[in-house]
């Protein structure tokens, strides 16, 4: 890191923020707004987690002087989960735009992780006037030769297995077993310290998301059921992604067996101005290596 890099002593573990509720018709989005200079980093989560995957990263970004907005997509975290609500990748793209418009953010840096990759890339394509640059963290968009689908996602994504997954959801113990299996698969290549921290912090976050009522399970089930169709749609938009004339930072945890470094390199092949940064971290690199991720995002590494 350069001499301008952030030191731990400068970081407030819990920076203050303004809280917002943003109406989306079928409920409201919960967002946290941390004061600073622009362009604003707008942090997006995947599934089945929520905005708290950025709790370790945000203090470093704020200490670096940048404005940061984190929000929960409808159906997740502290955003509304109305009975009968419809969730989709198009809805998540709309959630992002609603946050930008409501808070008057102007040009932003969308920061996408996991399943929010489509929202980040498609926002840059559809709303170029609002995007300064793009930051992608272990996420997906279209097809990529080395990409693997996590077992729990594949299970719920296959429509012909719906009777099985519905039965699974009726048994909290069996669903918990599947979650535990998936967590072990995600963490098996991590260092012991990273594994212990992630297993505790992330496990609690995901279990709260699922078990706390109203639950995020309806959003999770609907989103996963649309995954393969979304990948196909985005693959058809690759030429539009290739036309993006903005800087893109690809920040990748090398120990992700699913959205692996091959996926990052595939992104790089299709982007005009992409820089690739590979870290000794897993899928949730913003939890494993927050200081290093922040330094790259802030241009200090």
Automatic annotation (TrEMBL):
Ranges where the AB hydrolase-1 domain occurs: 39-290
Claim: Oxidoreductase is one of the keywords in the record: no
Example of a GO MF term: hydrolase activity
Coiled-coil ranges from the UniProt annotation: none
One Pfam family in the UniProt entry: Abhydrolase_1
Superkingdom of the organism of origin: Bacteria
Keywords on record: Hydrolase
Protein name: Alpha/beta fold hydrolase
Source organism (scientific name): Paenibacillus glycinis
